[in-house]
């Protein structure tokens, strides 16, 4: 079986490729910039140019593909819609068997998350495409929390505009294991998976966990959206990304990330890592 991974130079895609290679799969990487993928080629991966903006490049990149893992880019909604249309059209033309779509937990018509319209569109278009499909709705990444820990220590607080919401954080390593399994297992056809961590933490619980890991108090600080925006601006986040992040924390308070499932363990035979275990691992690597 030939598995083709889009966005394979990214943080998630490269982990899925590594997991597939570990399981001796035939892997092709469809990437925007093949020059960035020399490490993948060295590992025996077939690297092809596949730019979501260039339909013809995708048709060539998707040749001889049984299962195509689609990891959308981080572009704004309208751009992503065009990119996904290109991807589906090219997959059909290239004769792809099944598409595994990397979606997001915040996918409902009531979602507060600004990118939800893209995920609604993508899921619906895929189901109606005539291609075989699997949909993964991924939980919120835990990795950026670990990246932020040194700055949190400097600030002496965990500032989020979240009053009551809980988040079943999940790390990219566990998502990659589950996505690799979803590509490899034919029984995943026409199924939706909700890939979450093993527990849903409130923000005070997350702050207490960080404090235990780093050995000093980093209390939760409930901040207004305006203050959260100022904090992000001080860290040079682009304005578009700040708007996306702010809407994501509204979605947290809307309960959109609190669901906990056993889907990662069901797919891989191993439970996902807890927040404390992951943060400790990252802290000890520093
Ligand atoms: N679960 C969460 O909390 C969460 C958070 C953030 C994002 N996400 C989602 O996770 C996915 C990516 O995550 P990531 O962590 O791997 O991000 P990342 O490390 O920033 O990788 C983004 C990837 O998209 C590729 N890309 C961008 N534009 C492209 C184009 N026009 N054609 C083909 N490839 C293109 C990039 O290629 P280059 O190397 O050439 O730039 C790169 O490989 C996205 O679908 C995003 O919506 C999830």
From TrEMBL:
Domain NAD(P)-binding: 8-182
Keywords linked to the UniProt accession: Oxidoreductase
GO molecular function: NAD(P)H dehydrogenase (quinone) activity
EC number: 1.6.5.2
Keyword Hydrolase: no
Highest taxon above the source species: Bacteria
This protein's record includes keyword Hydrolase: no
Coiled coil stretches, renumbered: none
Pfam families cross-referenced by the UniProt entry: NAD_binding_10 (PF13460)
InterPro entries in the record: NAD(P)-bd_dom (IPR016040), NAD(P)-bd_dom_sf (IPR036291), NmrA-type_oxidoreductase (IPR052718)
Listed name of the protein: Quinone oxidoreductase 2
Species for this entry: Maioricimonas rarisocia
């Amino acid at each position: 079986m030939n598995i083709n991974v889009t966005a394979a130079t990214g943080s998630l895609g490269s982990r899925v490729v590594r997991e597939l290679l570990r399981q001796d799969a035939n892997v092709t990487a469809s990437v925007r910039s093949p020059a960035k993928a020399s490490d993948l080629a060295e590992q025996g991966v077939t690297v092809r140019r596949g730019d979501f903006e260039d339909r013809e490049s995708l048709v060539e990149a998707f040749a001889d593909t049984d299962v195509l893992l689609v990891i959308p880019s981080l572009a704004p909604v309208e751009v992503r819609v065009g990119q996904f249309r290109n991807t589906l059209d090219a997959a059909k033309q290239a004769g792809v068997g099944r598409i595994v779509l990397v979606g997001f937990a915040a996918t409902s018509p009531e979602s507060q998350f600004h990118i939800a319209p893209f995920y609604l569109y993508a899921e619906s278009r895929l189901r109606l495409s005539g291609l075989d499909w699997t949909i993964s709705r991924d939980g919120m990444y835990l990795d950026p929390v670990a990246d932020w820990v040194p700055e949190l220590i400097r600030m002496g607080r965990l500032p989020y505009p979240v009053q009551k919401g809980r988040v079943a954080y999940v790390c990219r390593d566990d998502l990659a294991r589950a996505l690799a399994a979803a590509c490899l297992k034919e029984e995943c056809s026409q199924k939706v998976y909700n890939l979450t961590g093993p527990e849903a933490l409130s923000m005070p619980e997350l702050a207490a966990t960080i404090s235990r890991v780093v050995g000093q108090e980093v209390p939760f600080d409930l901040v207004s959206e305006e203050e959260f925006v100022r904090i992000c601006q001080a860290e040079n986040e682009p304005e578009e990304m700040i708007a996306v992040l702010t809407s994501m924390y509204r979605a947290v308070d809307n309960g959109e990330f609190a669901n906990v499932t056993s889907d990662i363990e069901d797919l891989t035979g191993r439970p996902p890592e807890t927040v404390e275990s992951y943060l400790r691992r990252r802290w000890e690597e520093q």
